Amino acid sequence: MDDFLEKFFKEVYERKKHAHENNYCKYDNQFLQLFTSCLYIAALVASFAAASACTKIGRKPTMQIASLFFLLGVVLTASAMNIEMLIIGRLCLGVGVGFANQAVPLFLSELAPAKIRGALNICFQLFITIGILVANMVNYLTSNVHPNGWRISLALAGVPALILCLGSLAICETPASLIEREKVEEGRAVLKKIRGVDNVDNEFDSLVHASEVAKQITNPYGQLMKPSSLPPLIIGILLQIFQQFTGVNAIMFYAPVLFQTVGFGNDASLLSSVITGLVNVFSTLVSIYVVDKAGRRVLLLEACVQMFVAIGIILAVDLKPTGSLAKPEALLVVVLVCLFVAGFAWSWGPLGWLIPSETFPMETRSAGYSFAVSTNMLFTFVIAQAFLSMLCNMQSGIFFFFAAWILVMGLFTMFLLPETKGVPIDAMNERVWKQHWFWKRFMTEEEVQAKKPEMIHPHLT
């Protein structure tokens, strides 16, 4: 928004108003990129503290901490009088993101029965996409409110923060977390409640055994370096890197900038962002319906093909550094961006969070997932901090960069990513990693046997 740029980023505002020589470079400013990206550095650091909080005090209190940081960040950014206040507010929001992204997917995976775990966990991503859509709509509606439309926009972020705060007071803690913290009978009671039956002995015994194994691990981060822990760790980290290097965050963060670059006016570009937000939401609904039927790998492979084709056609459009596209070509770019976003939204977006949340055993679950979250935040920071400069220097060639990564992602999925559909979390070692042509070499027999529930409770098989 011009009022926002004029107050905090005058150099960018002047360049936007008066520079016509290069569409790709008018927003190239390190401080503007830092405003976006500093949130993710804070989230990266906070994710490690959040992992400890998840283990020691539980998933529910960790979500409550996240909501408090969100509310503090909203107050600071909406009332910001200078760039320092704005950045501190963004850092608070980042801490909230780190705590929420650590706790919520673990909470969902631990509550869900195996047969619907994928669909329930993807609800996390669904509501993120709804949040993006609502944010785009708010920005569109407040863009013509002068001079404080941007303050209204940032202040309204307090609404979902307040909902998270109040909602986290109403939910129950997960049985796995309660048992992990030696509240065994409370864990059994919650398990009966969420399953809706009294006979939960098999699942309860499995959780107790997993907790007993976890208690033997005094250094979960050291345990992650053992051979049998490497497959979920490597895959969890790579999924987060690949998720960011699809280029989708660059498109979603800077959709208004991108659409202005190809010839849309300010209001039209914000409206186009609302359209991509709608595509994002409805495509995530597709993933919820399909993921536990078709599986994870099918969605990821199909999306690689779809995103690669979309980028290929974008490259065929002559995106000029000066002037603007003709209306048919500009509309084609919007359609292709929507096609790209749709492919991401039913695959790499939700599954990048789902797969790591369901593959780590209890003894390394919080520590392992914190690596995934922090990796995601690190590479989100890298893309957010670098994208506008990359756009300026590489111009339309930036799509070659992302296309190359999508090709690598497809090959990785085809050869190195096992299917985890319908597999109970505590049976991953035996039924997934030990059966995979490549990852089975990491599974030493002694470690695998120690983690098998049937070694203590034979009736579980």
From TrEMBL:
Pfam families: Sugar_tr (PF00083)
Domain Major facilitator superfamily (MFS) profile stretches: 1-421
Topological type in the membrane: Multi-pass membrane protein
Record keyword Transmembrane present: yes
Membrane-spanning intervals of the chain: 31-51, 63-81, 87-108, 120-138, 150-172, 233-257, 269-291, 298-319, 331-355, 367-391, 397-417
Record's subcellular location: Membrane
Gene3D superfamilies linked to this entry: MFS general substrate transporter like domains (1.20.1250.20)
Sorted UniProt keywords: Membrane, Sugar transport, Symport, Transmembrane, Transmembrane helix, Transport
InterPro entries assigned to the protein according to its UniProt record, in alphabetical order: MFS_dom, MFS_STP/MST-like_plant, MFS_sugar_transport-like, MFS_trans_sf, STP/PLT_plant, Sugar/inositol_transpt, Sugar_transporter_CS
PROSITE patterns tied to this protein: MFS, SUGAR_TRANSPORT_1
Cited SUPFAM superfamilies: MFS general substrate transporter (SSF103473)
NCBIfam families with a match to the protein in the record: SP (TIGR00879)
PANTHER family: SOLUTE CARRIER FAMILY 2, FACILITATED GLUCOSE TRANSPORTER (PTHR23500), SUGAR TRANSPORT PROTEIN 6 (PTHR23500:SF472)
Protein family (similarity comment): Belongs to the major facilitator superfamily. Sugar transporter (TC 2.A.1.1) family.
The protein's name: Major facilitator superfamily (MFS) profile domain-containing protein
Native organism: Xanthoceras sorbifolium
Species classification: Eukaryota, Viridiplantae, Streptophyta, Embryophyta, Tracheophyta
